[in-house]
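subagent[fold] <- orchestrator: predict structure for attached chain, return tokens only, no commentary.
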Amino acid sequence: MSDAFRSASDSSLPAAADGGSGRAVHGVVRIIAYLAVVGAIGLLALNFYRAAQDRAVMRESADHLTEQRGLIQPVQKHMAPEYSDRAGRLLADPPDDPQALLDPNELVLAHYVDADVDKQLVDWDALQTVLAEATGKKILLQPYLNSADNVAAVKAGSIQIVALHAADTPYVVNNAGFIPIAVLGTKTGANGNRLDIAVAADSKIRALADIRGHKLTCTEPNSMTGYRAAIIVLAQQAGLRLDVDYSINFSLGQKRSVHGLIDGDFAVAALSDDKVQSMLNNGSIRASDYRVIYRSEVIPRLTIGYVYNLEPALAAKVTDAALNFKNEGGGAEESSGEPMHFLPIDYKRDFEFVRTVDDSFDPRFSKAAKAKSERE
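subagent[fold] -> orchestrator:
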């Protein structure tokens, strides 16, 4: 072999070696890239699986919380253990021991004060006079604020006659022995308000089920018609769960809710029909501006009664005086202009809707919602 040939052959060997090495490197790179893609797909699949699991856990947790709260199936609340209800009236029986009956020289009438009206719905001074004449006792007036102290005073018997907002009645009945005897109203029925769930006139929301995926605007966390009743209605009549199927916010005012709905700021709102009617009457809104997709039965505004251990003959005198009270100096019903007086009730029948809301959505749960509304 010539030296030239040997030289040429030797010079070609390194080039061949370099080509094989390059192909090997490219192969390794392809394998690494393939593994990276597979790993990325696997990671995405794992994340998707975990997210699905998390959603399932959240849904199960929400279902459990909903069930605990009684939003779907109300959990009937019961009277405190110191009371009995042998007749099944859902009201406390008077004590069997005559020594436990109350017959004080002075009776305290604690009454609801509506801060939003110029003229109170009841002429409390006139009722004070009528009760004094009927019972032969001095009647002391004081506001009823539904505070812990007020409830404790009813339970202790230091407040004997109570006129309070109907929304607060079930709790005081069950925990303080309150016996409601009448609600304020006219010849057409109880004075009160209805829950209206409303949308803008041109909204595509036609039924309660259509609220799924939307935000419900409520008024404030302690409102019966503006919050609590709406949550119950959506849960029990449409199977919609708060913070799962829809969300909420708070306007902190009926007028804000109505105008926000009409202006397109809110998709759907829980309203009190009497406030809406008032705005219609004064011309600030038109009936064509909105559309009601649900309206509840009347929720009484004001109820009056006495403590369960008031001496029966004295309790009868209080009842007769309240039911015969003309209330000529009290406020008229806004929608009809008719004077209002106290109408006898059957608590078990007439407060069924109010009890359902109270049983299903305990006011204690509103604290978290209130804190949330303050952050928004």
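orchestrator: received. Logging for downstream: Residues 235 and 252 are 22 Å apart (CA to CA). The first strand starts at residue 106 and ends at 111.
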